[in-house]
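One thing: can you check what follows?
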Amino acid sequence: LVRRHGFETVRERGGQLRGGEEGAVQMDRQHLLPIGEGEIDDGLHDLDAGIGDHDVEAAQFLHAEIGAGVDRRLERRRSLAALLQGLLRRVPGIGVPAVAAGDEATFKDLTIVVDPVAFGIDAATLQAALAAEGADARRYYDPPVHRQQAYAGVATRPLPVTDAAAARVLTLPFWADVSEAELRTLADTVARIQES
């Protein structure tokens, strides 16, 4: 069960889920769970509470508008991610995520890989430098799960690739309403830090 702004969005019955804007999830209609005779739980039934059964067209219009809004926001987010990734690819020592052919990214956030040798400092130091500039970058993946307190009592084998990856990633400030100018400033700041 996934919720967006308090409304039930999807109940999974199988099939491929696609993450969406601010927690919304999209999936093919055939993978939605039935909620009653002839009804499909498209996650928007709560919105119909103020619409009488006699006005089905209005409900369908409302559903289409909400879906179109999510699609527009996803396209905007993808466009902004492409801009920021293009700018960051020019900075030595910064790697950006690649989306495999046939996959779709929602870019809920944008995480980069920092090569400490090529960039000149590690991800943790870059995070501190960005914070000094007013940019709130996060280390969401460090420490990796097998090193977190909740799993301290669980036996694990060494995971050197996981440890190395977690040490090198940094999630940059990125949200649906960020402006292109803010992204250019962020990329310029990362480049300036690398050059200093």
Q: What stands out?
A: Residues 1-54 have pLDDT under 50 and may be disordered.
